[in-house]
């Protein structure tokens, strides 16, 4: 047994060295390509300082901007969110960008280039977080974009842009506070109705109230000004952590996204009869907690084995069995009233998140779940309602933008001998991104960055410093090849 164990340990050690070998080789090749003169070497060293060292420092700074003391929480228009926006705006100005904040709290930084009236390339991600978040989700994409433009500024190329480039830090993507995602990017894309201003959080504060509390005089008229004219936009690019394990399993730092799964969010409310835990006989109870538990288990079974639930009539005949492989369903939040150990609850609600790469599959699951909920609730003598909180169709990335990003990634990684034969990975995203909303405005492209263990929405979320550098360098090369004279 000793020999195989030693062999596995040796392989593990060598695999662990791969990222180090990759970046040492990359740095050496960059320095060599810059020539032997001190001027060329200094320029590449400056790129390293900006794209890695400064970018990493800024991500960690944002990671400390939180509304909670012991974990990261930064939701739409919270005090921490406003502080984060101010920091990002300062960094945008440091990169030579003209900045402003729109009526939905999105922070913008723009470089006009040679032709300030041309269609603009947008680059962005979100500055809000989930509760008990990691520090790279969202922030990484904003900082990489600002860093790449700062490199153009210090190398005196920012004024040579063939079209305007605009970096956007979206105010809301996660949808934590108001239970509806993409408030920032959907408003820009023109797919968020003005009625969204009336949506309230758990404290009864509306979106409009929250905006006014932060000095945004957002009326229906000013809200309409957040929307961009599609004719003014060339395209959108987003850099984001993968939030999955594929790139790490391939020992590859970057990948190009070909599409994003569609998503439906529901809120299920179950109402029964509130009563004393010790005096109401079991056969007389109309317990919404037990009914809700039954519905949650039903959802799991439906999403694990959809073929056992869906009847293949004319409506579902078009669903290919292989499309079920990417189907995922989650109950992420549950609450009851009055929430006391000696009281049978009177009301329970829980959230449902359903995602699939195929929209027909997702819609079929939503419809089937809704039908089964009605049946279950009738049999348990409780009242059930289902609210549709969010619905987004699957979004597919533009082939030309994806090819340009792929070339930029290949240009970055092919400088190393051990990875030159590898194709740039292309991936589908099960997570939602601002690119989904912006796809209603313009063509989109996405670049994924490897994250440790594929862990995200957790304090354990982590991206290597040198992977941040690779992402910034790839974005810089994309800009230099496609948006510079």
Structure notes:
This protein is of the alpha+beta class and 485 residues long. Helices cover 39% and strands 19% of the residues. It contains 13 helices and 16 strands. It has helices spanning 2-33, 38-63, 79-94, 139-154, 183-189, 207-213, 220-224, 246-249, 288-304, 359-379, 399-413, 434-438, 465-482, and strands at 98-101, 107-111, 120-126, 165-170, 233-241, 254-260, 262-271, 275-276, 328-330, 334-337, 343-344, 347-356, 383-392, 395-396, 426-429, 444-449. Strands 1, 2, 3, 4, 5, 6, 14, 15 and 16 form a nine-stranded mixed sheet that branches. Strands 7, 9, 10, 12 and 13 form a five-stranded antiparallel sheet that branches. A hairpin with a 5-residue loop joins strand 1 and strand 2 (107-111). 43% of the residues are buried. Mean pLDDT is 90; it is low at 1-15 and 33-42.
- Rg computed from alpha carbons, rounded to a whole number of angstroms: 25 Å
What sort of overall outline do the alpha carbons produce when their principal axes are compared? globular
- Average of per-residue pLDDT values: 90
Please work out how many helical segments DSSP would assign. Answer: 13
Low-confidence stretches: 1-15, 33-42
What distance lies between the first and last C-alpha atoms, to the nearest angstrom? 62 Å
SSE-based structural type:
alpha+beta
Got a strand count? 16
Keywords: Endoplasmic reticulum, Hydrolase, Manganese, Metal-binding, Purine metabolism, Signal
EC number: 3.5.3.9
Cofactor: Mn(2+)
Main location: endoplasmic reticulum
